[in-house]
Amino acid sequence: MAESGTQRHYRAPCPGCGAPVEFRSAQSTHAVCSYCHSTVVRSGEVLRRAGRMAEVFDDHSPLRLMASGRFEGQPFTLIGRLQYKGDEGGWTEWIAWLQDGSTATLSEDNGAYVFMRPAALGREPPDAARLRVGATTAVDGKPFSVAANLRAQLVAAEGELPRLPPPGQPFQVVELRSGDGEVLAIDYGSSPPQVQRGRAVRLEDLQMQGLKDESAREEKGRQFNCPHCGAPVQVQLATTKSCTCPACNSLIDLSAGVGGELRHAVQHEPVAPLIPLGSVGQFEGASWQAVGFQHRMGREPGDDEEFGWDEYLLYNARRGFVFLVDASDGWSLVRPATGAPQYKNGAQTASYLGTQYRLASTYTAETDYVLGEFYWPVERGQKTSNADFAATGGRGLLSREQSRGEVTWSHGERIDSSAVAQAFRLGDKAALFRRQDAGPVAGNPGIGCSTLILAAVVLLVLLVLMSNCAGSSGGGYRSSGGSFGGYTSGGGHK
After folding, report:
1. Which stretches make up the DUF4178 domain (predicted)?
2. Same structural domain for residues 33 and 152?
3. What is the signed CA dihedral for 484, 485, 491, 494, rounded to 10 degrees?
4. Of the candidates 269, 227, 261, which has an alpha carbon nearest to the alpha carbon of residue 244?
5. Kind and range of the H or E element at 332?
6. Closest Cα to residue 416, out of 352, 324, 290?
7. Which of 61, 222, 261, 322 is most open to solvent, judged by the fewest CB atoms within 10 Å of its CB?
8. Whole-prediction pTM value?
9. In 232-319, at which residue ranges do the beta strands (DSSP E only) sit?
10. How many helices (H) and strands (E) in the chain?
């Protein structure tokens, strides 16, 4: 036995291979031997072997076991990791052992993080089937919106664990979000269901130490032959779930792994992105690489005309993913909202973090063409129901996207066309980036007043015609709510 603060530090040989297995937290009932991957169950001071756990896959996370940090002034250490797979993607939960002896969860999903602690609802959680996506419910008198209701399963684990769901057995997960960014997750994989409550955090705010070195976070490429044309396909990101062939532009589904049977879809009429994939741009003081591109089409209710826009998936190793949206009414940079804005179905307004937004347009969105890599299994023909909101008197934007099992909110702001071109060092092509946000050009001394009046009249006529046939009622920024195909990335349960 050994003392570590107020906790008893227990170490004993693994029943499977004899290697030392440690329990730092008194709340840990399971551990995975780091040598033979045996699942070890502790009963008092007796260890028994309960099968073998699959090895964790390399998700290129900057976190690792025994990394430490501080949350709300209290030190913690990461002592365990659980990797889950949901209907359309996966996420990781790190078990944090706090100095006071309690445990918490640092949930990681594609560069976004949520720090959560066990919580009590004060009543028995309702059946998962009753928590419909988009519905509102009250917890301790506080309104929450149901952001996700999906099936998941444990695929791998390592380290110390306060509990261990049976690997490979599906269970239901429901995620609720409040207007001020609080996250509440209900895990129906045990009886009674486990409840956790927390909010989004940044690694910088957690003062993390012991993270992986930069060299350990380099993305290792994977290569295989295209199932359609046989050309070599290189995949750079470990989280990629779909990509396109650089030779024939076929869309390839990687959700079953490179070693699995690859599904593909041939794409005709290729769309050339204005920003070449692989380009690096500077936004928010960080470097972002364009790794994915998709063209989407939209149609408003009762309108026969369609409109289109482009979305670029940008990646930063520390910050995860954001979307750069190119629409006829301007450029915008958007990311998923951790919280659920205050909104009632059918309302003309929404509120988020103290800012009021007014409904600009509602429409059905469909993915039409795809290039590059994506961390969810994107497919042509994916459809969502969207609503765009614009901040009153500002550049802020808010979007709601609903798919079959999830409601995703995203927020962002408009970006000047010239700023986008400069960010990617494409100033020589600035004219191609110009959208409706471009400011008026200064008058040329050689242009007379009558010419300016005529030009203004022609412009007015064109604007009227465009407003009648563009299929847009409010000039929304045509985001897909973060464009995750309906899949949220708030850092909590998927």
Report:
1. 69-201, 277-416
2. yes
3. -160
4. 227
5. strand 330-336
6. 324
7. 261
8. 0.62
9. 232-235, 242-244, 251-253, 263-265, 280-283, 286-299, 307-316
10. 3, 31
Does one domain contain both 193 and 291?
Answer: no
Which among 143, 149, 133, 148 has a CA at the least distance from the CA of 179?
143
In a domain, 233, yes or no: no
> Considering 183, 207, 231, which residue would you say is the last residue of a domain?
207
DSSP 180-210: TSEEEEEETTSSSPEEEEEEEE-TTTTT-BS
Q: Do the beta carbons of residue 171 and residue 153 sit within 8 Å?
A: yes
Range of the domain at 29: 2-207
Which residue from 470, 462, 435 is spatially nearest to 307, judged by alpha carbons?
470
Domain annotation covers residue 450:
no
Mean pLDDT, range 57-74, rounded to an integer: 83
- Structure confidence by residue, pLDDT tens digits, 197-206: 999 888 888 9
Query: How far, in whole angstroms, is CA 465 from its chain's centroid?
Result: 38
Q: Are residues 140 and 57 in the same domain?
A: yes
Residues 422, 414: contact at Cβ < 8 Å? no
Number of domains the chain contains? 2
Percent of the chain with pLDDT over 90: 24
- Before 440, cis peptide (omega within 30)? no
CA distances from 320 to 111, 203, 205, 292, 483 (A): 4, 12, 16, 13, 14
253 in a domain, yes or no? Answer: no
Amino acid code (one letter) for 177: R
Q: What is the pLDDT of residues 324-352, one digit of tens each?
A: 999 988 999 998 887 778 888 888 999 88
Residue 200 sits in the same domain as residue 277: no
For residue range 12-21, what is the model confidence (pLDDT) as tens digits?
666 666 666 6
Please report the pLDDT score of residue 348 as a whole number. 93
Q: What digits encode the pLDDT tens for the residues 282-301?
A: 999 999 999 889 999 999 99
3-state secondary structure of 428: helix
User: Minimum mean pLDDT among 57-61, 302-306, 322-326, 377-381: which range?
Assistant: 57-61
Burial of 353 (0-12, 13-18, 19+ CB in 10 A): middle
Average pLDDT over residues 168-194: 88
What's the mean per-residue pLDDT of the chain?
Answer: 75
CA Rg value for the chain: 25
CA 140 from centroid of its chain's CA atoms: 28
In a domain, 478, yes or no: no
Q: Report the DSSP pairing between strands 355-374 and 280-283.
A: unpaired
